[in-house]
Amino acid sequence: MQFFLDTADIGEIERGLELGMVDGVTTNPSLIAKQGKPYLPTVKEIAELVPGPVSGEVLATDYQGMLDQAHRLAELADNVVIKVPLIPEGLRVAAQLDAEDIDTNVTLCFSANQALLAAKAGATYISPFVGRLDDIGHDGMALIEEIIEIYDNYDYATDVLVASVRSTAHVLQSATLGADVATIPFGVLEKLYRHSLTDIGLDKFLSDWAKTGKSFDD
Ligand code: E4P
């Protein structure tokens, strides 16, 4: 499973790349707004830093406006993936970009039927938002299971990108279900490393050796 970082924070992206666990990045308007920086230059800066796919979202909601912004985003760098919302005009844009060989990430997916439409439109990635579904009492991961089953039934090429990930359990379930990608907030990525027995075991190893009074080279 690929790990994307769900952030527009350059510090987090640099640290994630250093850890060797980041295959790509997803941004959205809210994440870029949080950085207080201009829109296109931020997507460009991230795309230049990250070797893998970087999702940058259109801000327009009409067909021509989205398509124009998609082309401007795509010109920033070869690895920019165009994020379009799951609305009728968004899927028309996804189909057009597919015809132009430009990768897309269809975002704000909350149902299996929406995911089916995105695959039929030729989306490169579909982003179902599991955390936001959990927030309203639905089962976000059940949606992932359903989408994977549908895509397998018809051999759709669209990759399932689990979004709105809030916990390490979401990451584990994504991997168990065979999702292609999980886009993970930096705080959740850090938590994946942690286990109390790892810390206890390491402390014991080091303190046992320290008791000998010898160093690494003795
Ligand atoms: C996906 O690409 C979105 O940027 C993101 O996962 C949304 O997450 P949130 O629901 O935590 O805002």
Layout of helices and strands:
Elements: E1 2-6, H1 10-19, E2 24-26, H2 29-35, H3 39-49, E3 54-57, H4 63-76, E4 80-85, H5 88-99, E5 104-109, H6 112-120, E6 125-128, H7 130-135, H8 140-154, E7 159-162, H9 168-177, E8 181-184, H10 186-192, H11 196-210
Helix pairs in contact: 4-5, 6-8, 8-9
This protein binds erythose-4-phosphate (E4P).
Erythose-4-phosphate binds near residues 28, 129, 132 and 183.
Describe the structure in your own words.
By secondary structure, the protein is an alpha/beta fold. It has a single domain (2-210), classed as TIM Barrel, CATH 3.20.20. 53% of the residues lie in helices and 17% in strands. It is built from eleven helices and eight strands. It has helices spanning 10-19, 29-35, 39-49, 63-76, 88-99, 112-120, 130-135, 140-154, 168-177, 186-192, 196-210; strands spanning 2-6, 24-26, 54-57, 80-85, 104-109, 125-128, 159-162, 181-184. Strands 1-2-3-4-5-6-7-8 form an eight-stranded parallel β-barrel, surrounded by eight helices. Strand 5 (104-109), helix 6 (112-120) and strand 6 form a beta-alpha-beta unit. Helix 4 packs across helix 5, helix 6 (112-120) runs parallel beside helix 8 (140-154) and helix 8 (140-154) runs parallel beside helix 9 (168-177). The chain is globular and about 70 Å long. The termini are far apart. The model has no long low-confidence stretch (mean pLDDT 98). Erythose-4-phosphate binds at residues 6, 26, 28, 107, 127, 129, 131-132, 163-164, 183.
